[in-house]
Specification:
homotetramer; alpha/beta; two-stranded antiparallel ribbon; 4 helices; 7 strands; about 30% helix
Chain lengths: ~140, ~140, ~140, ~140
Amino acid sequence: MVCAFQMLCPGCVSHGLPQAQRVAETFRPEDVAVIGLHSVFEHHEAMTPKSLEAFLHEYRIQFPVGVDEADGDGIPHTMRAYAMQGTPTTVLIDREGRLRRQAFGHLPDLQLGAEIMALLGERPDMTQVSSAAGEVCTPHGCT
Amino acid sequence: MVCAFQMLCPGCVSHGLPQAQRVAETFRPEDVAVIGLHSVFEHHEAMTPKSLEAFLHEYRIQFPVGVDEADGDGIPHTMRAYAMQGTPTTVLIDREGRLRRQAFGHLPDLQLGAEIMALLGERPDMTQVSSAAGEVCTPHGCT
Amino acid sequence: MVCAFQMLCPGCVSHGLPQAQRVAETFRPEDVAVIGLHSVFEHHEAMTPKSLEAFLHEYRIQFPVGVDEADGDGIPHTMRAYAMQGTPTTVLIDREGRLRRQAFGHLPDLQLGAEIMALLGERPDMTQVSSAAGEVCTPHGCT
Amino acid sequence: MVCAFQMLCPGCVSHGLPQAQRVAETFRPEDVAVIGLHSVFEHHEAMTPKSLEAFLHEYRIQFPVGVDEADGDGIPHTMRAYAMQGTPTTVLIDREGRLRRQAFGHLPDLQLGAEIMALLGERPDMTQVSSAAGEVCTPHGCT
């Protein structure tokens, strides 16, 4: 999974990157590799690799992030090659390296989880999630 | 998918039922059938089938909901048969009718979507989600 | 402050009652008295005082709640006397017992806090809130 | 009200700045002046005035923002003068220009609204908020 983003794109900061982080935490690394792609097409002077480094540190992004270098006209190379409309864009590539899904904007977790699993074709070991405290009822009372 | 709940269980109202609703909206009905199960094990007099009817109306629950009838000791029959710990409980049953997953408490959407798809074994047509307004950036500006 | 609600009104459960709870926790009891009012105008058989009791227990409502008894036509007495449009309705009564504000629907916390304080006319001792962990940056790092 | 922040401080982006924006929208400009203060004490090369400009544009910050210039050791001048612990920091200054409140971290809206009003000493005209659609019940049904 590739998460194309810009560090100053509000939708990327509030939705795209946290979702990519959740994907990285939910699936096993051998099943799903999550990669960030910094595809800057505006405010180039404010979103340099140096600034990106500070951003990734402060937002504690754990997955690897590549820089999508801009061509002469300011549009990043990979963004153009993939004909992305903007950021955030989510790209799913299957085990054989084929591009299988490209979505601009927000994709609900339920759907993204299903699409990733459809590409995996088999069930990976996911983190087993225990109950959230204070949100369940048992015959011994609600907690 | 079965969503076992109680109408006065806060975690069911805020997490379990809305998630079941999202599943019903994300997958095709021929792929995933979502069913609610009202498994009342406390406050029986406050959560009668009559009260449930009003609740389902006000919360606009769209999927069918069955009533899990209590045995003599107040524990509902299906809840005991499935050895559920409490509510909400999510149950996944595959195409062959086998119980494949039972989770007490909150299951993240990303994981639930993946688990459902693992059981489907093939990609269903999901609702294609368009970008959320105001949350994306394009070379023509952020909207 | 009076919070008129119905136990099966979604907006009351997700917004009105939690907000009333926050008011009760933010202001001193000698400055602001928070009272719930169960003003049922529909599904009477599902929202009896007995059901309300179970609801208040499960949702851990800490402030006192009164029952607004229905007149012959099913409209509760106080709801009619105050000409409330529906639920949730927030009512602010000043120290002299005069009705100063009545709002149907959701009132933002920022505005409600300001309106309550305008009626108090002086600063009460509010709970001093410490910083939320993991959400601040200091010269020693973001935590 | 002064909102001291750093453009790459997650708590400022998700809590501090949106709250300052809400204050600016809730109170009349003649009652409350909201000012942002970019108090950078780390990653100076990534949070330059030029980068800040892009950030303010993308996040649509409407209130004026000043730059807190760093002294020789990288700690901004005003941040040191006010002995701020970090970002976000909220500062309330009364009509006479006296510093009345300084809070590091997150301040709940309810409390902030009350504190601002306590300083105003009288009720300003706030935006009257209408009911949020789909979240209220009336005798004609829940909408």
